[in-house]
């Protein structure tokens, strides 16, 4: 029996969960506004592509380098405390930078430092929230909750940039930073009063007569994932998709100006349409819940994103609106891919392992971004930006179709059989949530 047992989740699970969820949504909005404001300040101050690339790399490094270790710590520590400390750290670091801007002492390295701190704290917060969700939400509602999460992300993509630009027109940058501090408080307060369940620690994976170190717990999580072929394949697919998606969308401005001959308004049209697609896809998933077998929903979504990517890549220069429609298709398919996969992991991975599994998959996918960005420029100069969308379309189509013929993937949500579990790495299947206090 999986640790996410609906009999152990209160029948009135929704009010406490969504109270926390709404606070986190406000915090996410504040974070997006700060990210926009800082990137805009770097752009206005330096006009340097190198500086912007460095800022992106600073934000990625904690996820790539620290992600697996963070996952082990999330599974070891109290998850509610992790979320409170992560939000508090972000708020304090943002307050410090706001003071520097207010006194006119800001420097570029200080902005880099804040981005690194925010990315590190976010690296703790995201897996803690994802791993807690499976102990607060009944299994049959996990896909719908993930649909809401995807809808929220899409909404932020639409709202944050224009709202950030509007706020920067009204306030100095430190004013926007103070808004983020306020939204962080809205995220912290519910966590101080609402119980977040904790799984019992997995003692079966510890060597006899020895205490468990973070490194041992990381290795246990890695063995746990590697012993589950379906998870390994899903992680490899996520890495390949991220490798292709990152440069394709990073070079979207060049596609607009170089191929379609457009301006900023045309770029905004593509990005906003994609965001609208994400919102509608998230709403659809939250209402519908997906096919009975969630993995079918994800693989079907991969095929749909392939169609949209090929349409963008093959659209003639005079067919801008075909690319707009294709971007809507891509956006709509993203929640259908991500939501069910996250719900499957929350439903079948033992609760005391979820922090490590989420961060392992996220680190594997994120690690591809720097590599793909390094090689994207020369290849795009030689073959054109559209090439990336064509390759993305072909690759996702092949993955989506091939998965239906791979039992390890199609049977992922059935969980691991006893034969698949390593003798020393079996997780306790009788774990019950305990108070996060």
Architecture overview:
This protein has 437 residues and is mostly helical. It has a single domain (6-197, 217-415), classed as MFS general substrate transporter like domains (Growth Hormone, Chain: A, Up-down Bundle). Helices cover 76% and strands 0% of the residues. α1 runs antiparallel to α2 (49-76), α2 (49-76) runs parallel beside α4 and α2 (49-76) packs across α7. The two termini are 25 Å apart. 45% of the residues are buried.
Produce a short descriptive summary.
The chain has 437 residues and is mostly helical. It contains 16 helices and no strands.
Topology readout:
Layout: H1 14-46, H2 49-76, H3 79-102, H4 108-136, H5 142-170, H6 173-193, H7 214-226, H8 229-250, H9 252-259, H10 264-288, H11 294-314, H12 320-348, H13 354-366, H14 368-383, H15 386-403, H16 407-410
Considering the chains and any ligands shown, give keywords for the structure.
16 helices, disordered N terminus, mainly alpha, Growth Hormone, Chain: A, disordered C terminus, 437 residues
- Total number of strands: 0
Query: Superfamily at the CATH H level?
Result: MFS general substrate transporter like domains
Anisotropy-based shape: globular
Number of domains: 1
Alpha carbon gyration radius:
22 Å
Let me know the largest β-sheet: none
How far apart the termini lie comes to: 25 Å
CATH class: Mainly Alpha
The name of the CATH topology is Growth Hormone, Chain: A
Structural class: mainly alpha
Integer average pLDDT: 75
Strand content: under 5%
Number of helices: 16
Portion in helices: over 70%
Give the low-confidence spans.
Answer: 1-7, 203-211, 418-437
String of helices and strands: HHHHHHHHHHHHHHHH
> Which CATH-level-2 architecture?
Up-down Bundle
